[in-house]
Design brief:
14% of the residues lie in helices and 29% in strands. It is of the alpha+beta class. The strands form two sheets. The protein has a ten-stranded mixed beta sheet, with helices on one face. A two-stranded parallel ribbon has the order 6-10. A hairpin with a 5-residue loop joins strand 8 (139-145) and strand 9 (151-159). The chain is globular and about 50 Å long.
């Protein structure tokens, strides 16, 4: 299992990067992202190849690996309970200000919640358009199945609610604040390998790999 001890080089010195933090909140109250949640450049061990995305749910960390044993470490929100899915994927689609609608699994888990939204007309004529109130935020990296080459409905995406960073809150995706997901989006090309490591204890099964 990946953790900070075996992923980072022993002599690592983290450098805080100048990616904008967010004080926005969808409910209106001000919130400033803690300093420790800012992106940091870290040293990693030599066995990790450059230009892959790695998510370690046990640290609420997402790594973009680079040359010379370096990586940028972002703090993310992850799937709550058993909704987090580990495995290996690839970026099959990239979307700016993606639209959104509940997945079939979400509708099955919480039909009352999402039926209410549909009755309000939000989804009656299609998905919710992209924008500041959309749950996927400013950018979406769509994770595809390695063998079947199709969408898994897992996403690395933005959020306008910074209070959800560093906690287990989502329906299975990894989320960053909008300024940070915009920066990550520009770094990560189509086809990029994505590795989602398991939660401690192996509670989440491998999914759609």
């Amino acid at each position: 299992m990946l953790n900070r001890r075996n992923f980072l080089a022993a002599s690592a010195a983290a450098t805080v990067l100048g990616v904008a933090r967010s004080s926005a909140h969808q409910l209106g109250e001000a919130y400033v992202l803690p300093e420790e949640y800012m992106p940091r450049e870290v040293r990693i061990r030599a066995e990790f190849e450059p230009n892959i995305v790695i998510v370690d749910p046990n640290q609420y960390a997402l790594y973009w690996t680079m040359e010379d044993q370096r990586a940028i470490r972002y703090t993310v929100g992850i799937g709550r309970g058993n909704l987090y899915h580990d495995g290996e994927f690839y970026v099959g689609r990239k979307v700016e200000w993606p639209d959104w609608r509940p997945t079939p699994d979400m509708l099955a888990r919480d039909p009352d919640h999402y039926t209410q939204f549909r009755e309000d007309g939000i989804y009656a004529d299609g998905p919710q358009p992209g924008g500041v109130n959309n749950p996927l935020g400013a950018r979406g990296l769509y994770l595809y199945n390695v063998r079947k080459r199709r969408d898994t409905y897992l996403r690395i995406h933005g959020t306008n609610n910074p209070r959800t960073i560093g906690v287990s809150v989502s329906n299975g995706c990894a989320r960053l604040i909008n300024p940070q997901v915009e920066e990550l989006y520009d770094r990560v090309p189509m086809g990029t390998r994505v590795v989602l490591y398991p939660k401690a204890g192996g509670a989440a099964p491998h999914s759609q790999v």
